[in-house]
Specification:
single chain, 511 residues, alpha/beta, Glutaredoxin, Four Helix Bundle (Hemerythrin (Met), subunit A), 5-stranded mixed β-sheet, two-stranded antiparallel sheet, 50% helix, flavoprotein, Sulfhydryl oxidase, Thioredoxin_domain, ERV/ALR_sulphydryl_oxidase
Length: 511
């Protein structure tokens, strides 16, 4: 019996050897790839759109331009073109994009019945058909062959990956290559002298907000002694975050905070914040995106999160009213003290907070204090990074704002013996610059896209009133801050009136 089994096994091996030898060499290579444990199907980089998400994705993308391919899945030419399109999409799409935030590359399958009207809007006459334009122009828009002034254009020379990328380079004045790798950003232009670039920082503020909360959840930093600090910071975000979707997400967390993180739970339960709050997407389902725009450094390990967090703090400071200034100050100081994970930075910032010997009476004073604190941090890091060679050569630490952005902010600028500058500031001009730069200009991109409109949700006011038992500010203030996320324009007036009518607070004790 064993002899028969050996004979059968030998015959089987001979048969398999013969079959393998009869395959063409290319097929044998495919077999090796399939059998290899390292073989992983690569995901598509281009974003699949349909009638249900077409407008929302193109409206919300941070990219400056979009390419939309209209195709049919049954079309042989479309199937053959897909690898070419994916080679280019790899450069621009996804968290590992080589050149993120520039071009959104998407596709629509016109063979799917759900997309019939969408494909009709763009007068699709053949497959594949590619369009280029600002993302906002695709939203609720279309294309007609005889339309002369449309900002949506047909790409007439994109039949290979090389041709398509050359076409893109001509439009952008860029020199991208298909073999570009992620990313030492040697071609990144400095944005210091371009005040309009701050508008793109709205996306980085969303990114920084999401990452900050991810760090809190991941490192289980919600404890009995830090819980109130987090509630106060959420209240500040609900009222004054520059992004509407982050205001909305912060309100949702605040509404559910007592259920997610009960005040009387044991410390072990409180510290398990990832399980309780980690599923909240505080700035929406598409954030974090995995890359930076305004805050992108010329090296992978520079700028990024720290830059985004500073922009968030400045954007909050310029949006508060006079009566909120002390609340905002203590809230931000406590948040950094309890939740910023860099120990040296945390201690240095809180030391600056503790040196303040009187309450802030006006938002102007708080805006200027935060600006001054940021410059002190830059001065400290300037020296350390220069001595260690860890600075970003494209974005060195500087005293802010530079003369290129605000020459009127400078009364005089003298050089010290150690090579640093001693600036006499025109603080009225500095305040005017900061409120415009981190306020109006920062929000301008969203205003253009029309997503800063206020909205009132039925029942949201009642929900927010009862949202948390851990009131860490006076009831009227906490309520007004929470209300502001749901009817931001109208209810902000209520907040201001509450603050103006409140008696001055006693001098606080700073820890």
């Amino acid at each position: 019996m064993s002899q028969i089994f050996r004979i059968l096994s030998l015959n089987l091996l001979l048969l398999l050897s013969f079959k393998a030898a009869s395959f063409p060499s290319g097929s044998r290579s495919i077999l090796r790839d399939i059998s290899s444990s390292d073989n992983v199907v690569k995901p598509d980089y281009a974003v699949d759109l349909n009638i249900t998400n077409f407008d929302s994705v193109l409206r919300d993308t941070p990219a400056t331009f979009a390419i939309v391919e209209f195709f049919a899945h049954w079309c042989p030419a479309c199937r053959n073109y897909k690898p070419h399109y994916e080679k280019v999409a790899r450069l621009f799409n996804g968290p590992d994009a080589v050149h993120p935030g520039i071009v959104l590359m998407a596709r629509v399958d016109c063979a799917s019945k759900i997309n019939n009207k969408l494909c009709d809007r763009f007068s699709i006459s053949h497959y594949p058909m590619l369009f280029w334009g600002p993302p906002s122009k695709f939203v609720a828009g279309g294309w007609e062959p005889k339309e002369e002034k449309s900002e949506i254009r047909v790409i007439d020379d994109g039949r290979t990956a090389e041709h398509l990328l050359n076409w893109i380079n001509k439009q952008l004045g860029s020199s991208y290559h298909l073999d570009d790798q992620k990313f030492e950003n040697e071609h990144l232009p400095s944005n210091v002298s371009d005040p309009g670039q701050i508008a793109r920082a709205v996306y980085d503020v969303e990114e920084a907000t999401t990452i900050a909360f991810d760090i809190i959840f991941e490192h289980k930093m919600i404890k009995s002694e830090t819980r109130a600090s987090l509630i106060k910071f959420l209240q500040l975000l609900v009222a004054h975050h520059p992004s509407k979707r982050c205001r909305k997400g912060s309100a949702e967390v605040l509404v559910s905070f007592d259920d997610l993180c009960p005040p009387n739970e044991k410390l072990e339960a409180l510290s398990n914040g990832k399980d309780m709050l980690g599923n909240f997407q505080i700035c929406g389902k598409d954030v974090p995106r995995g890359y930076w725009m305004f805050c992108r450094g010329s090296k992978n390990d520079t700028r990024g999160f720290s830059c985004g967090l500073w922009v968030l703090l400045h954007s909050l400071s310029v949006r508060i009213e006079d009566g909120e200034s002390q609340f905002a100050f203590t809230t931000i100081c406590d948040f950094i003290h309890n939740f910023f994970i860099c120990e040296e930075c945390r201690q240095h910032f809180y030391k600056m907070c503790s040196s303040v010997d009187r309450p802030f009476d006006s938002s102007r004073d708080f805006v200027l204090w935060l600006w001054s604190a940021h410059n002190k941090v830059n001065e400290r890091l300037m020296k350390e990074e220069a001595s260690l060679g860890t600075d970003d050569p494209k974005f060195p630490k500087i005293i802010w704002p530079p003369r290129q952005l605000c020459s009127s902010c400078y009364l005089s600028d003298d050089q010290r013996d150690d090579g640093t500058s001693r600036v006499a500031w025109n603080k009225d001009e500095v305040y005017s610059f900061l409120t415009n730069y981190y306020g109006k200009t920062l929000a301008s991109l969203y205003k253009e896209k029309g997503v800063l409109l206020s909205e009132v949700t039925d029942g949201a006011i009642e929900d927010l009133v009862a949202s948390t038992n851990a009131v860490v500010v006076p009831v009227g203030a906490a309520l007004a801050i929470a209300l502001a996320s749901c009817a931001f324009g109208a209810l902000a007036c209520y907040w201001r009136s509450q603050q103006k009518s409140r008696k001055p607070r006693r001098k606080p004790e700073l820890r």
